[in-house]
Amino acid sequence: MKTKLKFYNRAYKEIKKGFLRVYFFLEIKLLRFLHFTFKAKIYKKKNKISLLCPTKNRSKKFERFSQSLIDKTQYLDRIELLICFDIVEDELEDYRKTLQNLSKKGILIKKFFVNLKTHALRNNFLVKNSTGDIIFPVNDDLILLSRNWDNIIDDEFSSIDPANPFCVWVNCDRKYKNLDYSAFPIINRVWYNKLNYIVPEYFKFWYLDWWICDVARRSKKYFLSNVSIHQFHADKFKNEIDSTHKLNSTKENLDHDYNMWLKTLNYRIQDSIKINSN
Question: Yes or no: is domain 34-276 CATH 3.40.50.1010?
């Protein structure tokens, strides 16, 4: 009897999970369809895009990301790349070579040397120093897949009233298959001005993308982008494991951030109300 109950409970959970995936998929498609069918209107073209990239002892991964940025961007002069290093960076000379190459291609480089202990603090520091109309928090272990991704994002955000805070979910092959959230959501400047942060500073490393996407879903201020990226995450690619990943992925950090996620539902609800406020 107990075995049957366990089977039925497990089956129920799987059916519920499948239903939720279908629901989120249809919701995303419907929001995008309604937006571009009834609301789309070109407000602005050639939006400036700020990329926020904290990095530590990962010069080779940063070089890989930078090359994809050069290869896949149509208008490099609209890109502002903000990088956050620790005050002591062991691979600084290698980073400098990559940054010089990016600068020669026309990308505006802003680099900072600060000792900030968490990923949330680093991203919030970088966004305060950014000037872009569109804000894209990235990692050094990703690459851009979509050619002319900047033009696609520009078209998508240009279809939104510039007074309207909004979030666009890029398609990341690492996490997006569950359709619950995007690993690298992009926001506009109005979104940031409403909340005054990328994410609140409760978290050490994890759940930053979850926070943005949960607020976006609750406020109905998002749709799925046509831009795709790939993340070489160490959880999936064991050859990507390095000292930085080990430092961030301690059990203490994972447990702390998971518990904070569970405790902060009301704060995410409050953020969604702020996003929808006039």
Answer: no
- How far is 183 from 236, CA to CA, in rounded Å? 14
Q: Given this model, what pLDDT does residue 78 score? A: 95
All structural domains of the chain with their residue ranges: 34-276
Which pTM was predicted? 0.83
Cα–Cα distances in angstroms (integers) from residue 229 to residues 23, 27, 139, 154, 188, in the given order: 24, 22, 11, 16, 19
Most confident of 79-88, 180-189, 217-226: 79-88
In which residue are the tokens 């979104």 written?
Answer: 191
For residue 186, what are its two tokens? 């992009």
Query: 40 by DSSP, 3-state: which?
Result: coil
Helix residue spans in 167-223 (DSSP H): 189-195, 208-219
Torsion-angle region of 57 (φ positive above 0: left; ψ -120 to 50: alpha; else: beta) = left
